[in-house]
Specification:
This protein is mostly beta strands. The chain has a single domain, classed as 2-Layer Sandwich (TolA/TonB C-terminal domain). The chain is 12% helix and 37% strand. The strands form two sheets. Strands 1, 3, 4, 6 and 7 form a five-stranded mixed sheet that branches. A two-stranded antiparallel sheet has the order 2-5. The longest helix is centred in the last third of the chain and has 9 residues.
Length: 112
């Protein structure tokens, strides 16, 4: 089995492009997703709050371009962005070659 760094280069795949989830053959797999979802309470948020954060999961293993695309308008926003920067993942593949992928995660909080 090859690691993603040793995969052969496919000239039909532009490795500098950031692909959407629909454009890749194998989506990036966030290995520590359960840990990322444990944000802890954000008491300044209303009873029900949701933030959606987008990011680029680079073929190099970096998480870049982290942005809030749907704001909870409370501290859940900053907690969500900090959390996704800690993502550990296997990169997406297109034609057997590791590529960068745009992805997003939604964080929800329900206070009682």
């Amino acid at each position: 089995m090859h690691s993603w760094k040793s995969l052969p280069q496919d000239p039909s795949v532009d490795q500098d492009i950031v692909y959407s989830e629909d454009e890749v053959d194998v989506r990036a797999n966030i290995l520590n997703l359960r840990d990322l979802m444990r944000l802890g309470p954000s008491p300044d948020c209303r009873n029900e709050a949701e933030v959606t954060v987008s990011m680029i999961l680079r073929k190099s293993g970096e998480v870049t371009d982290v942005r809030v695309i749907k704001s909870a308008k409370c501290s859940l926003d900053s907690k969500g962005t900090k959390s996704v920067k800690k993502a550990k993942f296997t990169p997406a593949k297109k034609n057997g070659v590791a590529v960068s992928q745009l992805s997003s995660i939604s964080f929800k909080q329900y206070l009682r």
